[in-house]
Amino acid sequence: MNHKELLEEAKKARLKSISPYSHFAVGAALMCKDGTVFHGANIENASFPLCMCAERTAIYSAILAGKKKEDFVALAVVADAPRPVSPCGACRQVMSELLNKDVPVIMGNLKGIAKESKVAELLPYAFEESDM
Ligand code: THU
Question: How many Å lie between the centroid of ligand 1 and the Cα of residue 127?
Answer without folding.
Answer: 22
